[in-house]
Design brief:
Number of domains: 1
Largest sheet: 2 strands, parallel
Strand content: 5-15%
Radius of gyration: 15 Å
Number of helices: 3
Number of strands: 2
Shape: flat
Length: 93
């Protein structure tokens, strides 16, 4: 999903209407962006008003390893709390 093209459009609205938990990393600046962008479309407060939402702003120009680890840790924690992990199977990275 690209900001601002679909920041408050059909893509995100679908997940909100289906009551999904939202875990969003906004890459600002993005990998190819010349600078950081302002939240002119008020995406941040919109997302944070939704049920079970988390939003982080990360620098898309730095190595992605920490961002990927953060997402993996969140998913593992979420799944573990709900008894959804099969601890007998290794996690493939």
């Amino acid at each position: 999903m690209q900001y601002p093209d679909d920041a408050r459009g059909a893509t995100i609205q679908h997940f909100i209407e289906q009551e999904y938990d939202l875990f969003i990393q906004w890459l600002n600046p993005g990998y190819d962006d010349p600078k950081k962008y302002n939240d002119d479309f008020e995406f941040i407060p919109y997302i944070l008003e939704q049920h079970n939402s988390l939003l982080g702003i990360r620098d898309g120009k730095v190595d992605r390893t920490s961002r990927v680890n953060e997402i993996q840790d969140f998913i593992r924690g979420w799944a573990s709390a709900r008894g959804l992990l099969n601890v007998d199977q290794p996690i493939c990275l």
